[in-house]
Every structure is written in structure tokens, then in C-alpha cells.
Design a protein that fits this description.
- The protein is α+β, with helices and mostly antiparallel strands and 478 residues long.
- It folds into three domains: 74 residues, Uridine Diphospho-n-acetylenolpyruvylglucosamine Reductase, domain 2 (2-Layer Sandwich), CATH 3.30.43; 110 residues, Uridine Diphospho-n-acetylenolpyruvylglucosamine Reductase, domain 3, CATH 3.30.465; 249 residues, Alpha-Beta Plaits (2-Layer Sandwich), CATH 3.30.70.2520.
- It has 15 helices and 24 strands.
- It has an eight-stranded antiparallel β-sheet with strand order 20-15-17-16-22-23-21-24, sandwiched between helices. A five-stranded antiparallel β-sheet has the order 8-9-13-11-12.
- The longest helix is centred in the middle third of the chain and has 14 residues.
- InterPro entries: ALO_C (IPR007173), FAD-bd_PCMH (IPR016166), FAD-bd_PCMH-like_sf (IPR036318), FAD-bd_PCMH_sub1 (IPR016167), FAD-bd_PCMH_sub2 (IPR016169), FAD_lactone_oxidase-like (IPR010031), Oxid_FAD_bind_N (IPR006094).
Length: 478
């Protein structure tokens, strides 16, 4: 049964602000927040009015894909869905968009105009400001891997209700991963490039390839890998950027549409020791086009990679909007519309990658488990000076373990995974992917970077009265 993302207690009419308690939920794990008021501004002046007259603290929300407490407030939640403007400046090779615009829509509109963002996250159903603010990232060591690094200017309403424009690195290095703690971002300007295509290839190996993934990542425009430890296999996605004139209309389906019938089937409780292991093998087989499984999985979801004809292919060429990124349309067709997903995500310095793999293998040896969704997912990002970025001052491998929540309980091995990577290999928790309870249990064990200390000082200057703070900011010391 599908659950509502937002529900309001009390009677509200269509208005700028609704003076009744409102609950809203993250789409992936249904983590629930409760605010005193909800607001739906359509203009910058309306945002200013909300900040000047509404109930603090304030939290701007977008697509609600963050599963941590970063999306919550006890005061007024501000829905930025109406801010979806789009404008290209061909002279400066930039695009200016409303903060509530969805990434998939922006990249598709750019494609129509002959442009593209140089790289994107792998899921397109996130808002521009939300993805930027939580450090959402793709996977590349050659290019900027996240929206914040492509941002050259943004506009925001500050705690005193004034509008400010930020276009200097001294400010932007804090705003590029702002976590919603600095103000209400309503407009973002990003660098764009002439449209290109992506030549993607899917390969599979024994898990002995794990030691070489960091090297393989440096040679590609985009590179990802999925490890299926129970069957000792690794799947890689390598992408080379090629000329836009290259023939091909391929489609990558990391996050595909799933029929309501299948969603209902997936919501049925599973035997964790048996069925999940079967699903792990089926997911791996779908990725590599196993002929014995392909015909069955094609009834459930489209092929992992296709040349555009609906049939599986291990190699395809297509536009970046469909080859680096994927989404569900409508989003109610995403698998997480019917069940809760537990996401455990940690950023590790690339030189500690081998140590991280050894830790995961040790956890598996002590607590065997199967992964029915995407195995253990690896992505790569270059170092950055953005103060709250998990890639701050170090080249990074992002390690993500996604699984199902059964009867409202996360599997215990997930927290063990977080704790050991944080304490043993200098891991940093992804701001938008780990649950509220996991953050409160593990973040106090995480090393505080110099960048975080600088961000805390900057936030205290720009919002001295804590108008945009919440419980999550308190945990982080902001």
C-alpha cells in the first residue's frame, strides 16, 4: 500500500501558509517529520514574508529524497516546488534554474537546447537545491561529480528576510553543500557544456577486480561498480564521453519504472535467509544480461542497459540524460513507493579502499547477509574545497549498501557497516542517505574536519539566531 508523502492535520485551503501541523516523509524510508506550519510560496516576496512573519525554525524542502533528519523542522516547512524556472545563457555557457526544479527535467531541457551538465547524480528525481545542499554526487574522477561543484552563483533569502546573491568562492564553498542551514535558496546558476553522448559498457568480473577499481575509475569519464559478495562477482559501468553526432539512443535503467503489480509483490514479507539471496543473484543477472534470467526480469523491469530497442545490451551510446541518470515516471512507479529502503552510505578516502573492503568481508564472515537491491555500490569523486562536502580535501570512494526494512526495523549489520568504516578508515557519512537513528548513533564517532569547523563559524555569522537550524544541525554542532 502506498503511503502519502505529505499529510496535514486540520483544515487548510490553498494559501501561502497553512497554520496547521503537517507531517511529511522521505520517499525512500518514510522517515516522518512534523512541522507546525507549511508554506507554498510562488514568489521571492512570498518567501521573504514567510521568513519575516512565520514560525521559525524554517526548512525548505524539494523532492524529499533525503532519508536523514536534514529534511525536518519543528517550525515551518517551505515547499519550493513552484520554483522551477529555466533559462540558458549561451554567451556564458550557464543555466539558471529555480531551486525546486528536478534534475531530470533540467538535463532533458538542456539536451533539447544542445547543452548538458557535465555530470549528474544517478537518480534524476531530486531537486536542484536539495541535491546541491546535501552533496548529492555522481561518479567521476575526471569532472565535477556533484551539482554544488558546478554552481557558480545562487540567490537566497536570508534569516533577516533579505535577498542575497553569492558568486564568490569564499561564500560558495559553504553554500555548495549548505544542508538547508544558511537560508532559502531559490535560484541556482550552473556551468553547462555543449551536448555530448555517452558510450557505456557493462562488464562483469570475479571479485578479485575490487583491488583495481580505483585505477579503473581514473581512466573513464564516468565509472561505477556493484559488488555482489555472496556470489563473488563485480559488475562495472564504464562511460566515455563521445561526440554528439555518434549514432545511438541508449537508455540506462538503474532506477526504472516498476509496475504496481510488482510493487505489491515486493511488499510481501520475504524469507530473509533464502529469498533475499535469490533476489541478489537475480539483480546481478539482470545487470549482466544473463539469458536464463533476462526473459523473466524483463517482465518485472526494463533491461539494465539497452540500445533503445527495449532489448538488453552490454554496450550502448546515448545522451547523458538517459545514460548517466535514470528515474521513474511517475515516481509512484518506483519500487520504494511500496516498501521501505534502508540506505547506509559512507565516503572513504580512496587510499583506504582496500581496508574498507576487508572490513566489509569481515562483517560478512561474522553476520552473513544477502543484498536484494543493488549489492554494494561504489562511486568515485575528486577532492574539493567545499567545506561540508564528504569529499573535502580528499579523493573519495563512496560505498553504499541499500537493503529493505522489514517490520520497521533496519538490519543490524547496516549500523555495524557505518560504525566500522567511520571509526576504522576515516569514513564520512552521506548527509542525505543514512537514517536519523544511524546519524545519532554514529556521527558522534566521526572525525570533525577543518571544513566543518569553518562551516559552523560561517553559519553562526549568516544566521546568528538559528532561524534555519534543526535537530540535525544541533547534532552536527551548527
Amino acid at each position: 500500500m502506498k503511503r502519502p508523502i505529505v499529510s496535514t492535520v486540520g483544515i487548510c485551503v490553498l494559501a501561502l501558509t497553512c497554520s496547521a501541523s503537517v507531517t511529511y516523509k522521505a520517499k525512500l524510508n518514510w522517515h516522518e517529520c512534523t512541522a507546525q506550519e507549511s508554506a507554498y510560496p510562488k514568489t521571492v516576496a512570498e518567501i521573504q514574508n514567510i521568513i519575516q512573519t512565520g514560525k521559525p525554525p524554517f526548512k525548505a524542502i524539494g523532492a524529499l529524497h533525503s532519508t536523514s533528519d536534514v529534511i525536518c523542522t519543528s517550525g515551518t516547512v517551505i515547499n519550493m516546488a513552484s520554483f522551477d524556472s529555466f533559462s540558458i545563457d549561451t554567451a556564458t555557457h550557464t543555466v539558471t534554474v529555480g531551486s525546486g526544479a528536478h534534475l531530470q527535467n533540467v538535463q532533458s531541457a538542456l539536451q533539447s537546447a544542445g547543452y548538458a551538465l557535465i555530470h549528474t547524480t544517478q537518480f534524476g528525481g531530486i531537486s536542484i537545491a536539495g541535491g546541491m545542499g546535501t552533496g548529492a554526487h555522481g561518479s567521476t574522477l575526471r569532472h565535477n561529480s556533484n551539482l554544488g561543484e558546478m554552481t557558480i552563483q545562487l540567490k537566497a533569502v536570508l534569516a533577516n528576510g533579505t535577498v542575497a546573491t553569492f558568486n564568490q568562492d569564499s561564500d560558495l564553498r559553504h553554500w555548495r553543500t549548505h544542508l538547508g542551514f544558511l537560508g532559502v535558496v531559490f535560484e541556482v546558476t550552473l556551468n553547462i557544456v555543449p551536448l555530448f553522448k555517452v558510450h557505456a559498457s557493462i562488464s562483469h568480473y570475479s571479485e578479485s577486480i575490487l583491488d583495481d577499481l580505483g585505477t579503473l575509475a581514473t581512466d573513464q569519464d564516468t565509472f561505477m561498480a556493484w559488488w555482489y559478495p555472496n556470489i563473488e562477482k563485480v559488475v562495472t559501468y564504464t562511460g566515455k564521453f563521445v561526440d554528439v553526432a555518434t549514432s545511438g539512443s541508449g537508455v540506462w535503467n538503474l532506477v526504472p519504472d516498476v509496475s504496481p503489480i510488482v510493487q505489491d509483490l515486493l511488499s510481501v514479507p520475504l524469507d530473509l535467509q533464502a529469498d533475499w539471496c535469490v533476489l541478489e543473484y537475480a539483480t546481478y543477472s539482470d545487470m549482466v544480461g544473463n539469458v536464463l534470467v533476462r526473459d523473466v526480469t524483463s517482465l518485472i523491469r526494463p533491461p539494465f542497459l539497452t540500445t533503445g530497442n527495449g532489448l538488453y545490451s552490454s554496450s550502448a551510446v546515448g545522451y547523458p540524460a538517459s545514460m548517466i541518470m535514470s528515474t521513474c515516471s511517475p515516481e509512484s512507479d518506483c519500487t520504494w513507493s511500496s516498501f521501505q529502503v534502508a540506505s547506509f552510505a559512507v565516503a572513504v578516502p580512496i587510499e583506504r579502499f582496500a581496508d574498507a573492503i576487508a572490513i566489509i568481508q569481515d562483517i560478512l564472515s561474522k553476520t552473513p547477509f544477502c543484498l536484494p537491491l543493488t549489492g554494494i555500490f561504489f562511486r568515485f569523486s575528486a577532492a574539493t574545497d567545499t567545506s561540508m562536502a564528504v569529499e573535502y580535501k580528499r579523493t573519495t570512494v563512496h560505498i553504499e549498501l541499500d537493503t529493505l526494512i522489514v517490520d520497521g526495523v533496519e538490519p543490524s549489520y547496516g549500523r555495524t557497516f557505518l560504525r566500522r568504516l567511520v571509526t576504522e578508515v576515516e569514513g564520512r557519512m552521506h548527509w542525505g542517505k543514512n537514517s536519523r537513528d544511524d546519524f545519532y548513533a554514529i556521527y558522534p564517532l566521526q572525525n570533525i574536519t577543518a571544513g566543518t569547523k569553518e562551516f559552523i563559524l560561517y553559519a553562526s555569522t549568516i544566521d546568528p539566531n538559528g532561524v534555519f537550524r534543526n535537530d540535525f544541525s544541533t547534532l552536527l554542532g551548527v
